[in-house]
Amino acid sequence: MPTATAVLDQPSTPLDLSGHGMIALTRDLCAPRTAVVADGNETLFARIAEELPLELIRVPSGESFNGWVVPQNWRVKRAKLYRDGEEVFDGTGHTLGVAYYSRSFTGELSWEELQPKLVSNPALPEAYMFHCMWQYRPWDADWRLVLPHRLLETLGPGRYRVELETGDAPGEMLIGVAHKTGRSPKTIVFNSNNCHPHMANDGFAGTAVLIRLMQWLAEQETFYSYRLVIAPEHLGSVFYLKTLPREEIDRLVCGLFEEMPGTGGAIKATSTFAGGHMLDAAFANVLRHHSRAHTLVPWRCGAGNDETVWEAPGYEVPFVEVTRCEDQFAPYREYHSSLDTPDLMEPAQLEEMLAVLQRVVSVLEGNVTVQRRFDGLICLSNPDYGLYMERPDPTVVKDLEADAEAWGHLLDCLFRYMDDRQTVLEIAERHHLCFERLLRYLQRFEAKGLVELNRAEIERQPPERVAS
Fold first, then answer.
1. How far apart are CA 319 and CA 184, in angstroms?
2. Peptide bond into 386 cis (omega under 30)
3. CB 2: neighbour CB atoms within 10 A?
C-alpha cells in the first residue's frame, strides 16, 4: 500500500523568478536518471525538497488499479552490439541507449533480423530517442537498442551478436506533493511529470516553473489552497487520486497540467472537458491581454497529458493543460530525445509562462460579483463620482486608448450587470476587456459606496454539464 513520509527541508535561497534562475533549476532537475520507478527519483525529490517543503508518497512495485500497474525498478547491466565480432555499440553509454523496460536477450542475428530491433530518428541524426512505452505497459515489453541515426547509417549487412542483460527488482514509485494553505479548503491543483529522464521541456522545465509558482504563492495571502503534485505520467496521478478520501477529492475545484514552457512556440491552453469553467475564462482573459502569442484549443488538443486522469469519471476535477506545444503529434523538434536539454530554453519564454500562471491565479483569487446599492441611472461624469470612461466623439478630439469604444459599450450595459450574479471575469470576457483593469475600475465604484463586491467562489461543475 502507498505510504507517505514528510520531507521537512525549507527553501534555502532567496526566491529567483528569473528565466535564468528557472533554467538553472531545470538543469538540476534534469541531472538524475529518473523513470516511473528508478534509483534517481530519490535524488530528484531531495533536490526539489531544497526548494519546497515536500510530502513524499511511496507506491510499491506491483500495486495495481484499473489495470494500471506500478512497474519494477528496471536496470541495464550489459548492452553490447557486435558486428562480425567487433563491438559497434554499447547501450550502457547513454541513459536512453536501451529502450526502457527492455527484456534480456542474447543471440546471433542477421542484419535483416536486427534492424526492427534498432531505434533511431533520421530527422535527429545525433540524438538518442526516448522509447518509453513499456514503463507504462510492462506486460508488452520486448527489447530494443536505441542509437543515434548517424551510427545506424554506418551499419549494414553482416552477422550481429546482441548481449543485452537487464534486471528487475522491487522498488517504489515516488509522488511529491507540496501544499499551500489558504483561508478556504477549496484547492487548486498544479501537476507535472518526472518520468522522462534528463528531458527539459518534457518536462523538468515545467516542474521548475511550477516550483517557482508555489514559492511565489507561499509569500501571498490567498483565499484558495494550492497543491503541487509531481509524479510519473498518468501512473502517478492515477495512484495519487486513488489514495485520497472522497471529501478531499471534492475539495479539488480545478487544476492545470503544465510543461514545455521554454521552446519558441506560443502558449497553448486547452479547455477543461466540459468547458465554461471559471478556469477556462481566466486563461482566455489572461492570455488575450498578457501574452505575446497564444492559442486556445479544445480539450485534449494540446500535447495531451494527465488532465485525463484528473477529469476521469468519479473525480471530474476541471483541468486545463498549458504548454508551448507546436503540434499535437509533434510538440517540438527535440521532443522525446536526448536533445531536449536546458540549452533549448529561452529565459523570456519561461518568465512569460510563469507570469501568465501568476495572473491566472490572481484572476481566480480576485473574481467577484457586483451588487448595486442604488436605483436608476448614475451620472458617472459628475465630479461627485468621477467614474465616466471617455469614448470616441466625432466632434471632439480626445486622446483615448484603442479599447475606448469597448469601455464605452461596457458603460451602456454595466448597471444591469450589478445584480450579484455576473462575475467581473464574465463581464470582462463578454466585453473583451482586461480583468485586472475592470476589477480596479469597479473597486472605485465600491469606494464611492455604489456597489458591494462579493467573492465569486470556484465551484466544481456537475459531470452532466458537458458542452455539446
1. 20
2. no
3. 16
Residues 6+ apart with CB under 8 A from 329: none
In degrees, rounded to 5, the angle at the alpha carbon of residue 360 between the alpha carbons of residues 358 and 362 is 70
β-bridge pairing 54-60 and 172-180: antiparallel
Three cell numbers written together for 400: 483615448
pLDDT along the chain (468 residues), means of 10: 42 78 98 97 98 98 97 97 98 98 98 98 98 93 98 97 97 98 98 97 97 97 98 98 96 98 95 97 98 96 96 97 94 97 96 98 98 97 95 78 91 96 97 98 98 96 52
Bridge partners for 369 per DSSP: 423, 454
Model-wide pTM > 0.90: yes
pLDDT value for 3:
52
| CA-wise closest residue to 269 among 252, 291, 236 | 291
**In Å, how far are 4, 49, 234, 242, 274 from 277, measured between CA atoms?**
32, 33, 23, 25, 8
Give the C-alpha separation, 74 to 253, whole Å: 37
Closest CA to 177 of 165, 194, 153: 194
What's the confidence (pLDDT) of residue 196?
96
CA–CA distance, 306 with 324 (Å, rounded to integer):
16
* CA separation for the pair 275, 165 (Å, rounded): 49
CB 256 within 8 A of CB 279: yes
Provide the CB-side half-sphere exposure for 261 (13 A, CA): 31
Q: Which of 220, 238, 219 is nearest to 229 (CA)?
A: 238
Look-up of cell digits 485520497:
244
Concatenating the DSSP letter of every residue in 297-324 gives E-TT-SS--THHHHTSTTT---EEEEE-
The residue whose grid cell reads 518509453 is: 132
Instruction: Tell me what pLDDT residue 398 has.
Output: 80
The CA dihedral of 101, 106, 112, 117, to the nearest 10 degrees, is 10
